[in-house]
Specification:
single chain; 429 residues; mainly alpha; elongated; disordered N terminus; membrane; MFS_trans_sf; transmembrane helix; transmembrane
């Protein structure tokens, strides 16, 4: 079995690919395994290299032995600063030691806590390298998270960010006016903090408890920074120091707790990333847009149906008014023209003179009957042969009706047309 693959970027990558290929060959049917077998295999991989079960307990509530003392210690610092005027004289060594502003003890404690948090990040990264499905190398994000936390610990303990800001002003690397001292360390801190928070969020999506504490830590850091920058606009100026220290201590404690809980999740639940679940808010928004689009289409269709119904009703009313109104009697210009004798032309006179005497002896009554036949009546007979009786009606009115109703309506139309034709014949007669 070859241990190298084309495109591998490091030894860890090749080792994980080899482990994945060997495990896929050795396991007959991994899809038939139960959840307990998967968890047991995860335990074997996790405990084979790291003897951590003596430190990270299987039950999550027992982890309170780590983060509860830290919380009580930070709370004691704040309470001692508030009540120190009552049990020590101002200016004494004990008062200076218990003060949040002058005592080095909170600074060293926060630095140590952040250093332990960085170590936990490296431990989480080493646990994530045992994942058989992480071929993209997502475990490397924890190295960057640990580097960011270590840098934060150094800046908190030694005030390195203030030294950097002063050196920027002395060397005149850039000039932002009176805010150069603040922006010189604030902008890099925001960039590094946002990138570290995003990496931790991407890696902790399967661990609900660790992710929640990470979000709380980020919110507490933002609140502490806001209080530092806008302290003059917030009331209770006498207690700004205690409020700011409390927010900062709570943010450090939340970060430490989230990393401990995520280590427990990797050891006892799963070292793989969860499958990507679609966002609930995006799904709700898509469903809302889909329902809105359907409502719009329904409104358009209903409007079109109403317009068609109005048009059909209007046509029916027009037909009823036409059928109810009596037709005016047509004038008889043809009969008047037949009665009026036209002036004979010279050609017609010659034809009359050249005709034989038998035609002259023809009876006048037959000629009168031939001449008195109206031309309009003959034309109407020709039109009746070529045109249907119900052609004057709109066939759209028959849509949506049953076959029986169609026949009944067509029969009614034919009877109306026959009555009109009979009335016209009576008028012409």
């Amino acid at each position: 079995m070859s241990t190298g693959f084309a495109g591998s970027r490091s030894m860890d990558e090749r080792r994980r690919r080899r482990l994945a290929s060997e495990s896929s060959e050795s396991l007959n049917d991994s899809s038939d395994e139960s959840t307990s077998h998967n968890i047991a295999r995860t335990h074997r991989f996790a405990a084979g290299q790291f003897p951590l079960r003596t430190l990270i307990f299987p039950k999550r509530w027992k982890l309170s032995l780590y983060y509860l003392p830290v919380f009580l210690c930070f709370s004691g610092f704040i309470a001692a600063d508030i009540y120190r005027p009552q049990f020590s004289a101002s200016g004494s060594a004990l008062s200076e030691f218990l003060s949040l502003e002058h005592s080095p003890l909170p600074v060293y404690l926060t630095g140590a806590l952040l250093f332990v948090s960085g170590q936990l990040s490296l431990l989480i990264g080493s646990l994530r390298t045992q994942s058989l499905h992480d071929f993209s190398g997502r475990h490397r994000l924890w190295k960057w998270v640990a580097a960011g936390i270590f840098l934060f610990a150094v800046c908190t303990t030694t005030q390195l960010h203030h030294v950097w800001a002063s050196s920027v002003i002395e060397l005149r690397l850039f000039d932002w006016g009176p805010h150069t001292q603040l922006l010189a360390w604030l902008i890099p801190a925001l960039c590094i903090g946002l990138s570290v928070s995003l990496m931790a969020y991407l890696e902790m999506r399967g661990d609900r408890a660790g992710l929640n504490f990470t979000i709380i830590a980020v919110a507490a850091y933002v609140a502490s920074l806001t209080l530092t920058l806008t302290g003059n606009l917030i009331p209770w100026e006498a207690h700004h120091l205690q409020i700011g220290a409390g927010l900062l201590f709570f943010a450090h404690w939340s970060l430490f707790t989230s990393l401990i809980l995520h280590t427990h999740h990797l050891l006892y639940r799963s070292i793989d990333l969860p499958e990507k679940v679609p966002s609930r808010s995006r799904q709700l928004f898509a469903n809302y847009l889909h329902r809105r689009r359907i409502k719009r289409k329904a409104k358009c269709v209903a409007k079109a149906f109403r317009q068609k119904e109005k048009q059909s009703l209007k046509k029916i009313e027009e037909e009823e008014t036409k059928a109810a109104s009596p037709d005016p009697k047509p004038s008889r210009p043809v009969k008047r023209a037949s009665r009026s004798k036209p002036t004979p032309t010279p050609e017609a006179v010659n034809e009359v003179t050249t005709t034989p005497p038998e035609k002259k002896s023809a009876p006048r009554s037959s000629q009168k009957t031939v001449q008195t036949q109206p031309a309009g009546k003959q034309k109407s007979k020709v039109q009746k042969k070529n045109i249907r009786v119900d052609s004057g009606h709109d066939p759209e009115l028959l849509k949506g009706l049953s076959k029986r109703e169609r026949r009944k309506l067509q029969k009614q139309w034919r009877e109306e047309e026959r009555q009109r034709a009979a009335q016209q014949e009576e008028d012409w007669s």
